[in-house]
Amino acid sequence: MSISPDDTPAPDTPTPRRGRNAGLWLLVLVLLAIGSYAAWRRWHAREQDDAVAMRQQIDALSERLNAMRTEQRSHARRLQQADSLNRVLRDELDGITQRAALLEASVEKLADPDRHGAQALRLDETELLLTLGDQRLRIAGDLDGARRAYALAAGVLEGIDDPAYLSLRQTLLQERTALDALGADPKVKAIAQLDVFAQDVTAPVEREVAAQTSLAPWWRRAFGNLIQVQPTDRAVAVQAADRAAALAGLQLEISLARAAAERRDVAGYREALRRAGVWLHRLAPGPAVLARQRAQLQTLAALPLSPAVPTLGSTLQQLRQMRAR
C-alpha cells in the first residue's frame, strides 16, 4: 500500500499556544502563592494583634480582679467593724434595758404604800434590830445583846397597826421566849465550871500530899527519897519538883481551855481538856480520885460554848418575805 504525499500527517501547529498556557498557569500559581503568602501574613498579623488584645484584656481583667479583691477586703473590714459596733450597741441596749428594769422596780417600790410614812420607817427599824440581834448572837455570842435587840424590835413592831403583821409579832414572841429560856450564856457557864474544877483539882493537891506524908508509915518517911512506890498502869509524880511541874502543866492547860472557851473554840477547848487529863494521871493520888476527876473533865468537855436556838432568824426571814411580796 503506497502512501501519497497528501496522506502524511501535518505538523502540530498549536505549539506556541501550549507554551502560552503553561506560562499562564505558572503565573497563576505564582499569584496564588503570593496571595496565599499575603493572606498568611495578614492572618498571622491579625493573630498577633488578637493575642496582644487578649493579653491586654487578661491584664485588665487581672487588675479589675485585684481591685475587686481589695474592695472585698475593704467590705469585709467594714462588715467586721459594723459587727463590732452592733455588738457594742447591743450591749448598751441590754444595759439600758436593765437600767430601765431597775428604774421600774424602784418606781414600783416607791409606789408601794408600805414604803411610805411611819409604817415604812418602823419596818426598816424592826429589820435592822432583828439583823443586829441575829448577828450579835451568831458571831459574838452576845446573848444579852441579842435579847435587848429583840426586845427593841418587839417594841417597834407593836407600833404597827396593820393586821397583816400579827403573825410576825407571834413569831417574834416565840423567838424571844426561846432566847429567854437559854438562861445564862453557855460560855459563861463553861468557864465558871472550869474555874470550879481548877480550884478543886489544883488546891487540894498539896494538902493531900502533906496529909499522906504525915500519915505515912515510918519506913516510907525514912526511905521515901530512896524508894518510890507507884501504880503499874501510870507514872505518878511523887517528888516535890515533879509534882510542881505537873501542877504547872495542869494549870497551863486549864488556862488554855479557858481562853478557848472565851473564843468559843470548841476543838481547842476539848483538846486542852484532853491534855489536862494527861497531867491528872501524874497528880491523882488514887484511882477513885482519878476516876472522879476524869468524869468531871468529860462533863466539862461536853458543855456547849455557843447558844443553840433552832428558831433564830425566823422572824427576820418572815419579815423579809412579807416585804418582798
TrEMBL record:
Report the coiled-coil segments: 44-71
Q: Which UniProt keywords apply?
A: Coiled coil, Membrane, Transmembrane, Transmembrane helix
Family annotation (InterPro entries)? HemX
What is the top-level taxon of the source organism? Bacteria
- Indicate the transmembrane segments per the record: 22-40
Question: What is the name of the protein in this document?
Answer: Uroporphyrin-III methyltransferase
- Organism the protein comes from: Lysobacter yangpyeongensis
The organism's taxonomy opens as: Bacteria, Pseudomonadati, Pseudomonadota, Gammaproteobacteria, Lysobacterales
